[in-house]
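Weekly structure sync - notes
Attendees: PM, LS, DV (DV joined late)
Agenda: review two folding runs queued last week.

Item 1: First target. Sequence and C-alpha cells pasted below for the record.
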Amino acid sequence: MKKRIITAVVLAAVLLPLVILDHHKYPLVGHLFLAVGIIFSIIASFEIMSLFSKQHPSLGILRLLVPFMSGTLVYTIYLATTQGLSISDPAEASIVYHLLTMGLFILYVVIALGHAVFARNSSGNDMMASILTLTYCGLLLGFVINIRFLEPFSDQDFVYFRGGRSFGYLYAIVFATDTFAYFIGSKFGRRKLCPEISLKKSVEGAIAGLIAGSIFGVAAVFLFKIARPVGTKEVLFTILVSFFVSMLLSFAVQVGDLVASKIKRTYDVKDFGKIFPGHGGVLDRFDSLIFSGAVYYIIVLFVKVIYIWSA
C-alpha cells in the first residue's frame, strides 16, 4: 500500500502541472506532456507485446518495432488535434489529418501482417497480437493523450472543449465509476458480472458505477465549464445530454477495465508491467481511462466536424 501511495503522489506531481498549466503560455509544458505521452505509449506497447511474445516467440522483431509504431501514431494524432501541418480550411484539415492517422495505422498493420506471413512458425495469433497492440496502445491511447491539446471551437460557443477541463471531467467519471462499482459491489454484489474474467465484479456494482459516473459527470460538466448554458432551458438540456454522454463514458470505463482484465487472465499474469511500483505497468494504471478517453475524443471530433460544416 505504501508503494502504491508514493507512486500515485509522484505521478500526480509530474502529470498534474503538465495537464493544468496553459501550453500556449508555456510551450515547454505542451512539449513535455506530448513526450511523456509518447513514452507511455511505447512502454505500454512493449509491455503487451512482451506478454504476447512469451507464448508467441515468432513475433520476433515486432516486439520492438510495434512500440515504435505506436509512438508515431500518437504523434500523428497530435498533428491531427493541433492541425500542425497548417492547412488553411479547418474542415479539410480535420479530414486530412485523421485520414493521415488511419493511413499510417493501415500501413503498420500491413507491415505486421507481412511479418507474420513470412516468419517461421507464426500463426494468426501473431497477426492479432500486433493489430491489438497498435489499436490499444497506438490509436486509443493516442486519442486519450491528445485530449490535452483539444481547443474550444470559439470563445462564444455553448460547449467549451479544452484539454485540462476535459481531463477533469473524464477523471470525475472514472473515479466515480471505479469507486462506487467497487464499494457497492463489495457490499451488495450478488450476481457476478463476468465470472470468467473477474470474480470480484458484480452486476450490482456495475450498475452503481454507471449511475454514479453519470451523476458525477453532470456535476463535472458544470464544475469544469465544459458547457456554458444560459437560461433554464439550456441548463435542463445540458443536464440531460451530459447525463447520457457521461453514462456512455462510464460504460466505456468499465469495458476498458474488463478488456485489460481479460487479456491478463488469458495470459495468466497479474500486471502488464512493473514500471509503477504498487500499480503495475502503464496499462494497469490507465486501463479505465483508455476506452472512455478514446470515446470522448471521438465525440469531440464528431461535434467539431458538425460545427465546422454547419458554420
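Item 2: Second target, run right after the first with the same settings.
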Amino acid sequence: MIASLRARTAFLVLLVPLSILLGSCANPRDPTMRRVDNDEALFWRANLDFMKGRYEEAREQLRTLVTQFPESPLIPEARLGIARTYFQEEHYEQARAEYERFLSLYPRNERVDEALYYVGLTYFRQIERADRDQTASRRAVVAFRKLLSDVPDTQYREDAEAKIAVARRRLATHEIDVGLFYLKRDKFNGAVGRFQGVIDRYNGTGLEPMAFFYLGETYAKMEEKEKAQDAFRQLLEKYPDSLWAVVAGDRLGVKVVLQSRPIEDQKNSDEETGGIWDLFKESWEDIKATFKHSLKPTPE
C-alpha cells in the first residue's frame, strides 16, 4: 500500500521531450542554461530540485511557471507541486492552504483525491499526545471522511480509513484522560460526561470497556448504586472477554474466569494518556491482581 501511494503521489508527473531533458540537465550552474524558455522546462527543473530535496528551489521554479505561463496546462500540477514542497518541509499550514486552494480552483481535476488526502494528512501529522489539545485529531477525521465521501473509489481509501481509526482512538483516549482527571478531583458530572462520550461517540476504538468500567466507578463514588451496577453489567454483557469484565464482575460480586488472556484492552494506554494514568496506579495494581487471580483454572 505504501509503495502504491508513493508511486501515485510521486512529484514527477510529466514526461517532457528528450531535448528539454537534455538541455535543462546539461549544466545547471551555467547561467545560460538556467534561462527558462517554456513551461515544460520550468516544470522539469522543479522536478529535479524536488527529487534532490531542494524544496524551496523547486517551489520557486513552480511559482515562476504559474506567474509566467498562466495558460499552461501544467498549472494544476504546479500548484500541487507547490503544496507538496511545503508538506515535505513540514510546513503543514502552508501546505494545507495550497491544497485547499487547488481544490477551490480545480474541483473536477483528476487529482482531487490526492489534494483531499494531503489536507487530512497535514492535520494528522499535527496530532498531539492524548493529554493535549486534540483539534488536529478531530479535523483529520473530518478531512479523511470528506475524501472517502467525495471520492469513494480513491486508492487512498485504505490508508485514510487506517488514519481515521488512529485519530478516533486518540480522541477516545483523550476523553478518558480528562475523565480520569475529573474523577480524581471528585468532579463526577464532568467525569460521567467524558466516559459516556467514549461509549456513545467512539465505538470501535477498543476503549469502550475501559469507559464502561470507569463510568461505573464514577457512579459508585456518586452513591448512585443502580447506575453503577448497570454500567458494570453492560460491560460484562458487551465485552465478556475483556480484562475489564473481570474487575467489573468483582464489583458486582460475580466471578468472571477468562479461559485465556485476551489482547489487553488497555494496550498502550500509559503512553497515550501521557501520564494521567499514574493517578490511578494503586487501583490499577488491585485490578491487575484481580485479573491474575481470575485467570487461574477453576478447581475441580
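Discussion on item 2: The chain is about 65% helix and 0% strand.
Action: LS to circulate a short write-up before next sync.
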